[in-house]
Amino acid sequence: MEPRLNLFDNEFAAKFGKRFAGAGLLVEQSPLPKTTRELVSLRVSQINGCGFCVDMHTKEAMAAGESAARLNLVAAWREAVVFTEAERAALALAEEGTRLADAHTGVSDETWARVREHYDDDELAALLSLIALTNAANRLNVIVRNPAGSYEPGMLAAMMD
């Protein structure tokens, strides 16, 4: 399967990708825990049906030491006992922030209150930025039909150097 447009080889897309990666680097350097970042990115990518990003975030999370059991349960996190309350709040925000069109209020006050219990302003700003960036990346990859399965941990960071 070939992508409709190779986002890594196209000059404009590569320039955009480097700037986009720069925004992602800010999130990486934030106080938001790496585990939370990967779980949230994985869940957003699952919702959006982005195979490339599901592949990437699963493999990056595993390389960072995340367990297969927790990764396998991200799609069913509400029924799983392997996530902390803070992770559950972040996953709820990620889902509601990704499915904005599904509710006229966007993110519920209940979800917002739960997130505020667990994250300070800097962590929350990073979490919001991560959700927005992941949704944007998903849309780019789904539109061009970027295939999944060949991602290796660290590969995207190496391409952006």
From TrEMBL:
One of its GO terms (molecular function) is peroxiredoxin activity. Residues 24-96 form the Carboxymuconolactone decarboxylase-like domain. SUPFAM superfamilies: AhpD-like. Keywords: Oxidoreductase, Peroxidase. InterPro entries: AhpD-like, AhpD_core, CMD-like. NCBIfam families: ahpD_dom (TIGR00778). This is Alkylhydroperoxidase AhpD family core domain protein. It comes from Saccharomonospora xinjiangensis XJ-54.
